């Protein structure tokens, strides 16, 4: 059984797969309490759903691209669920703060968004996303090296962009072009 907060259909607004129509499965809970969290739903009500019940719901959407998000999905060992979805033809991506990469090791795509920049993992993911505000300790990001895409994402409000942080991040990636800007396109478009 999975603790599911919501299932919805939208576009991916972040990272390498920006613009891809995707089915989002938001799971309950997180191991962190970030002051800048832009998604509080993971702390509230949830349904306990079987794999089959989740499949029944997502089959109503046209996309075969699933994104498991939270909160923090790796609180749960999701390997069997990921394999179940893949067995039905889905491409499965997971967004994680890196709590337990082993719980999602068989995902097709892993977006790693570290929140503790003193201990950034070096493997187990396909892309990295740093959520950055104008007062972020940028030296930690600058020290990080990877052959994977490294995104700088402005710290935004829960439902709209923070244009001060957006401008800061634009200047940052222009100064350090090995980084890529990811702006949370869905917030600019006003979609979920």
From TrEMBL:
GO biological process: tRNA queuosine(34) biosynthetic process
Pathways per UniProt: Purine metabolism; 7-cyano-7-deazaguanine biosynthesis
Residues given in the record as [4Fe-4S] cluster binding sites: 30, 34, 37
Keywords: 4Fe-4S, Iron, Iron-sulfur, Lyase, Magnesium, Metal-binding, Queuosine biosynthesis, S-adenosyl-L-methionine
Amino acids binding S-adenosyl-L-methionine: 36-38, 71, 113-115
One Pfam family, short name: Radical_SAM
Domain of life, source organism: Bacteria
Record-linked PROSITE patterns: RADICAL_SAM
InterPro entries assigned to the protein according to its UniProt record, in alphabetical order: 7-CO-7-deazaguanine_synth-like, Aldolase_TIM, rSAM, rSAM_sf
Cofactor note: Binds 1 S-adenosyl-L-methionine per subunit.
Reaction it catalyzes: 6-carboxy-5,6,7,8-tetrahydropterin + H(+) = 7-carboxy-7-carbaguanine + NH4(+)
The UniProt record lists the keyword Lyase: yes
Cofactor section: S-adenosyl-L-methionine; [4Fe-4S] cluster; Mg(2+)
Function: Catalyzes the complex heterocyclic radical-mediated conversion of 6-carboxy-5,6,7,8-tetrahydropterin (CPH4) to 7-carboxy-7-deazaguanine (CDG), a step common to the biosynthetic pathways of all 7-deazapurine-containing compounds.
Family: Belongs to the radical SAM superfamily. 7-carboxy-7-deazaguanine synthase family.
Name used for this protein in its record: 7-carboxy-7-deazaguanine synthase
């Amino acid at each position: 059984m999975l603790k599911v907060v919501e299932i919805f259909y939208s576009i991916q607004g972040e990272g390498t797969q920006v613009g891809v129509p995707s089915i989002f499965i938001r799971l309950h809970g997180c191991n962190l309490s970030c002051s800048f969290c832009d998604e509080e739903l993971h702390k509230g009500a949830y349904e306990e759903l079987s794999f089959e019940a989740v499949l029944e719901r997502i089959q109503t959407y046209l996309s075969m691209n699933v994104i498991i998000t939270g909160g923090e999905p790796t609180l749960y060992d999701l390997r069997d669920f990921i394999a179940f979805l893949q067995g039905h033809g889905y491409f499965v991506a997971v967004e994680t703060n890196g709590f337990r990469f082993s719980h999602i090791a068989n995902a097709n795509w892993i977006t790693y968004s570290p929140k503790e920049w003193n201990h950034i993992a070096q493997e187990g993911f396909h892309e990295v996303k740093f959520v950055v505000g104008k007062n972020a300790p940028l030296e930690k990001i600058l020290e990080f090296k990877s052959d994977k895409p490294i995104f700088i994402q402005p710290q935004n409000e829960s439902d709209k962009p923070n244009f001060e942080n957006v401008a800061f991040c634009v200047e940052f990636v222009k100064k350090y072009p090995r980084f890529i800007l990811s702006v949370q396109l869905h917030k600019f478009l006003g979609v979920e």
